[in-house]
C-alpha cells in the first residue's frame, strides 16, 4: 500500500492498480483530493506492472461532487480538468467503482474513466442545477454523448439521482456489482477489459448520439416549452440546455469552451450564490447548539395521529411511507372511513402516475390502521401527533387524556399552527415530552416541518424529532413558541400590508403580479381564492365590514364558487374582476382616502421589507436560532423563490441599511406598525448583515 497523500492510496492488486480515496464526509473534490488523484493516476500510469486502474472510494459514498465550500475562490492547483485529462488520457483502461452517490464533479470524474461499475444501491446524477449551476467539468459535453441529448436534458435540468440499474440501462454504468463486493467486481471487470483487449473508451470521442440530434432544434424548443412553468425565473436550467445544444452542434473542445463560459457566468451570479447558501442553510438548520449530536434518541416504532382530516391523513402518510406503522384515531366512524379512503385515493393517484407500485400502495395502507378509541390504540405508541381543530380548549382536553393514556417517555406532539404550546403542555404532568410538529398542507407533499420547542421540551425529544423529520423526508427547522411561530408570523406581516395596499389603490391583481414576478408561485389574493375566502368567515356574523365580507356575501368565495377576488372562466383561468374593483373602490371612498397609483417597486418594498423586519424581531426574541433558519422555512413552506435565498438573505442583498431606511420612511408616513426592529437598527449601526449574526 502506497500512500499518495493524506486522502489517497495506491495499491497493486495483481496486475490492477487500485486508487482509493478517503476524504469524509463525501469525498468531495477538495484540493487534497484533486492532488491525490493527479499523483495517483500519474504513478499508476507509469507503473508497467499495472495493466489497468480502478478508482474506488472509502466511506459512505463515491465522490459526491466538487467541494462546494471552496467555491468563490480560485481553484488551487491541480485544477479539476488537469486531473480529468490524466484519467481520460491514461494509456491503460480506467474503471470507476461507484457506491453511494456519484454526483456532479464526482460523476464528471467517473465519465473520464473508460468504464463504470456500480453497486445496485448507487445513484448517479448531475445535480448542479439545484445549486444554480451547470456541470462545469465536462459533464454537459460527456453526458449527452453517453445517454443522448434528450435524457441529458431531463437529468441535468432536474438534477435527479439516477439509480444504478437505470443508469446501466441507459449506458451510464457498464456493469452492476454485488452489494459489498464492489472492489473485487471492479478489479475483475478491469482484468476482463484487458484480457479481451477492449478499447480505451473515451467518451469525448463518441459522437454518435449527439450527431443524431444535429439539425433537430425542435428537441430543445419542445423541451423548453414543456418546462417553461417549472423553470420560470431560474437561470440555471436554461444554461444547462444551452450547453447540451452546444454538445450537439459544436465539436467537443468548442462545447467545453461554451460550458466554461456559461459555468462562470452562473458561478459569479446572484442566483447560484443564493442557491449554494440554501444548500448549507438546510444542513445548518439540523444543528441545534444546545442539543449535542450524541443526545440519546427515543426509538419511534409506532405513531399515533389524532384526526383523519386532510392534515391528519397527510401526516399519517409520511410515516407509512417511511415504513413506520401509524394508527389514526377519529371520533366518528364515517369520518375515519372517509379519511382512510382519501389516503388510499392519494396513494392510488401516485401509483397511476408511476410514482409507486400497486404493491407499495397495499404495503403502505397495511401500515395505517384506524380506531375510534385513544385508550385502545395509544397505549403503546412512541409518538402521538394531534391534528384537530385549532381550539385551545379542545387541545387541552386531548393532552389531558394523552397524559393519562400514553406510556412514559412517549412524545406528545401538537400540529397547531400557532397556539401556545406551553399552555397546551401545562395540562400534562410531563411537559418535557410535549413538542410542536407543525406540518404544512398537503402534509404528505410539503417539505417543511416547523419543530416547535416549548419551555420544558427535553433535548431527547428535540433530537428525536429532528432525526425523525429527516427519516420521513422533511426539511426541519427548530423554532420557538410565539403566535404563528416563524412561518405564519412572517406571512401575517405580508398579508397585512397586502390588505392595506388595496385600501390605498393597488388592485389585488397588481399586488399578485408584483409578487409573482418576484418569483412566488402566486400572490396573496390568488392564494386566498384558492384556499377559499370563507375560511373562518361566518355568514350569520358577517356585517359587510370588510372587502372579504362583501365578496363572500355575494357568494364570491374563491375558485370553488367560480369567483373570489378574481373572476374565473370555465378553465379556472383568473381574470381581474370589475365587481371586486367596484367593491374596493366603494370601501376606499367610504374611508375618505384618495386612491393612488402604486408601482411594482413600492408593492414589493411594502410587502417584503416588513417580512424582513418581522424576521429580525423573531431573531431578537430568540424564536429562530439563526437568520438562515428563517430562510429555510420560507423556501420550503411558503414558496419563496429559491434563487432569492429567503427573506433574510434577500434583506442582506438589498442591504439592511436600505431596509431600515424604508421602514423608517413607512413609519413616518403610516405609523408604528412599521417600527423597525431593534435588531435591524443594531445591524446597521454595527455595519453588519443578518448572515453575520
Ligand atoms: C459540482 O460538482 C460542480 C462541478 O460540476 C464543476 C466543478 C468545476 N461539498 O447532505 P448531507 C457535506 S457542484 C462540500 O447531510 P446525506 C454537507 O454539507 C456539487 N460539502 O448527507 C454535510 O456536512 P456537515 C455537485 C458537502 O447523506 C455532509 O457533507 N454535488 C458536499 O443526506 C453530509 O451531507 C452536489 O450537489 C459538497 N459537494 O446526503 C451534491 N456535499 O455534516 C451535494 C455534501 O458538516 N450533496 N457535503 O453538515 C448532496 O446532495 C448530499 O450531501 C449527498 C449526501 C446526497 C451526497
Automatic annotation (TrEMBL):
Residues 484-568, 603-688 form the 3-hydroxyacyl-CoA dehydrogenase C-terminal domain. SUPFAM superfamilies: 6-phosphogluconate dehydrogenase C-terminal domain-like, ClpP/crotonase, NAD(P)-binding Rossmann-fold domains. Residues 302-480 form the 3-hydroxyacyl-CoA dehydrogenase NAD binding domain. Keywords: Fatty acid metabolism, Isomerase, Lipid degradation, Lipid metabolism, Lyase, Multifunctional enzyme, NAD, Oxidoreductase, Peroxisome. It catalyses: a (3S)-3-hydroxyacyl-CoA + NAD(+) = a 3-oxoacyl-CoA + NADH + H(+). The keyword Thylakoid does not apply. It is an enzyme of class 1 (oxidoreductase). GO terms for molecular function: (3S)-3-hydroxyacyl-CoA dehydrogenase (NAD+) activity. InterPro entries: 3-OHacyl-CoA_DH_NAD-bd, 3HC_DH_C, 6-PGluconate_DH-like_C_sf, ClpP/crotonase-like_dom_sf, Enoyl-CoA_hyd/isom_CS, Enoyl-CoA_hydra/iso, NAD(P)-bd_dom_sf. It is found in: Peroxisome. Pfam families: 3HCDH, 3HCDH_N, ECH_1. Its EC number is 1.1.1.35. The keyword Aminoacyl-tRNA synthetase does not apply. Pathway: Lipid metabolism; fatty acid beta-oxidation. Monomer. Belongs to the enoyl-CoA hydratase/isomerase family. In the N-terminal section; belongs to the enoyl-CoA hydratase/isomerase family. This is 3-hydroxyacyl-CoA dehydrogenase. It comes from Phenylobacterium koreense.
Amino acid at each position: 500500500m502506497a500512500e499518495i497523500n493524506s486522502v489517497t492510496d495506491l495499491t497493486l492488486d495483481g496486475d490492477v492498480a487500485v486508487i482509493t480515496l478517503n476524504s469524509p464526509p463525501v469525498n468531495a473534490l477538495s484540493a487534497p483530493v484533486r492532488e491525490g488523484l493527479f499523483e495517483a493516476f500519474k504513478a499508476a500510469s507509469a507503473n508497467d506492472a499495472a495493466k489497468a486502474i480502478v478508482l474506488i472510494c472509502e466511506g459512505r459514498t463515491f465522490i459526491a461532487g466538487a467541494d462546494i465550500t471552496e467555491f468563490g475562490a480560485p481553484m488551487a492547483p491541480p485544477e479539476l480538468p488537469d486531473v480529468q485529462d490524466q484519467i481520460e488520457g491514461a494509456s491503460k483502461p480506467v474503471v470507476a467503482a461507484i457506491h453511494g452517490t456519484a454526483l456532479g464533479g464526482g460523476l464528471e470524474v467517473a465519465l473520464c474513466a473508460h468504464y463504470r461499475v456500480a453497486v445496485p444501491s448507487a445513484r448517479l446524477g448531475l445535480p448542479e442545477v439545484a445549486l444554480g449551476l451547470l456541470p462545469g467539468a465536462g459533464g454537459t459535453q460527456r453526458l449527452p454523448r453517453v445517454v443522448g441529448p434528450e435524457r441529458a436534458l431531463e437529468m441535468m435540468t432536474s438534477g435527479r439521482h439516477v439509480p444504478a440499474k437505470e443508469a446501466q440501462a441507459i449506458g451510464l454504468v457498464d456493469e452492476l456489482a454485488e452489494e459489498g463486493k464492489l472492489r473485487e467486481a471492479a478489479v475483475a471487470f478491469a482484468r476482463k477489459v484487458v484480457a479481451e483487449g477492449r478499447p480505451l473508451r473515451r467518451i469525448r470521442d463518441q459522437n454518435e448520439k449527439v450527431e443524431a440530434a444535429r439539425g433537430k432544434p425542435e428537441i430543445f424548443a419542445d423541451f423548453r416549452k414543456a418546462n417553461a412553468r417549472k423553470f420560470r425565473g431560474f437561470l440555471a436550467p436554461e444554461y444547462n440546455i444551452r450547453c447540451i445544444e452546444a454538445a450537439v452542434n459544436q465539436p467537443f473542445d468548442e462545447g467545453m469552451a461554451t460550458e466554461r463560459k456559461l459555468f462562470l457566468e452562473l458561478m459569479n451570479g446572484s442566483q447560484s450564490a443564493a442557491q449554494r447558501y440554501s444548500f448549507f442553510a438546510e444542513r445548518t438548520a439540523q444543528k441545534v447548539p444546545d442539543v449535542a449530536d450524541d443526545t440519546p434518541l427515543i426509538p419511534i416504532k409506532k405513531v399515533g395521529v389524532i384526526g383523519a382530516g386532510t392534515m391528519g391523513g397527510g401526516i399519517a402518510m409520511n410515516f407509512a411511507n417511511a415504513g413506520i406503522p401509524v394508527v389514526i384515531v377519529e371520533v366518528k366512524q364515517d369520518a375515519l372511513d372517509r379519511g382512510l379512503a382519501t389516503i388510499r385515493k392519494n396513494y392510488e393517484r401516485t401509483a397511476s402516475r408511476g410514482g409507486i407500485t400497486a404493491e407499495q400502495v397495499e404495503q403502505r395502507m397495511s401500515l395505517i390502521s384506524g380506531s375510534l378509541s385513544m385508550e385502545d390504540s395509544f397505549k403503546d405508541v412512541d409518538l402521538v401527533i394531534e391534528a384537530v381543530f385549532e381550539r385551545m380548549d379542545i387541545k387541552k382536553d386531548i393532552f389531558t387524556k394523552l397524559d393519562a393514556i400514553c406510556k412514559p417517555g412517549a412524545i406528545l406532539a401538537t400540529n397547531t399552527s400557532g397556539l401556545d404550546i406551553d399552555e397546551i403542555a401545562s395540562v400534562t404532568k410531563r411537559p418535557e415530552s410535549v413538542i410542536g410538529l407543525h406540518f404544512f398542507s398537503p402534509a404528505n407533499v410539503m417539505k417543511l416541518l416547523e419543530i416547535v420547542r416549548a419551555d420544558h421540551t427535553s433535548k431527547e425529544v428535540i433530537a428525536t424529532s429532528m432525526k425523525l423529520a429527516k427519516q420521513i423526508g422533511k426539511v426541519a427547522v427548530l423554532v420557538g413558541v410565539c403566535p404563528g411561530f416563524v412561518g405564519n408570523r412572517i406571512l401575517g406581516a405580508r398579508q397585512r400590508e397586502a390588505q392595506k395596499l388595496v385600501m390605498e389603490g393597488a388592485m389585488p391583481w397588481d399586488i399578485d403580479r408584483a409578487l409573482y414576478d418576484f418569483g412566488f408561485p402566486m400572490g396573496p389574493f390568488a392564494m386566498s381564492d384558492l384556499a377559499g375566502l370563507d375560511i373562518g368567515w361566518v355568514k350569520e356574523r358577517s356585517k359587510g365590514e370588510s372587502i372579504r365580507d362583501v365578496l363572500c356575501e355575494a357568494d364570491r368565495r374563491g375558485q370553488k364558487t367560480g369567483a373570489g377576488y378574481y373572476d374565473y372562466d370555465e378553465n379556472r383561468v383568473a381574470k381581474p374582476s370589475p365587481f371586486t374593483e367596484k367593491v374596493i373602490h366603494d370601501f376606499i371612498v367610504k374611508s375618505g382616502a384618495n386612491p393612488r397609483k402604486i408601482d411594482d417597486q413600492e408593492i414589493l418594498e411594502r410587502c417584503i421589507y416588513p417580512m424582513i423586519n418581522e424576521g429580525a424581531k423573531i431573531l431578537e426574541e430568540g424564536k429562530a436560532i439563526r437568520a438562515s433558519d428563517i430562510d429555510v422555512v420560507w423556501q420550503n413552506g411558503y414558496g419563496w423563490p429559491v434563487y432569492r435565498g429567503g427573506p433574510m438573505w434577500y434583506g442582506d442583498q438589498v442591504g439592511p441599511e436600505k431596509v431600515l431606511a424604508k421602514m423608517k420612511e413607512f413609519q413616518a408616513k403610516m405609523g408604528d406598525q412599521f417600527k423597525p426592529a431593534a435588531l435591524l437598527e443594531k445591524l446597521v449601526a454595527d455595519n453588519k448583515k443578518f448572515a453575520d449574526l
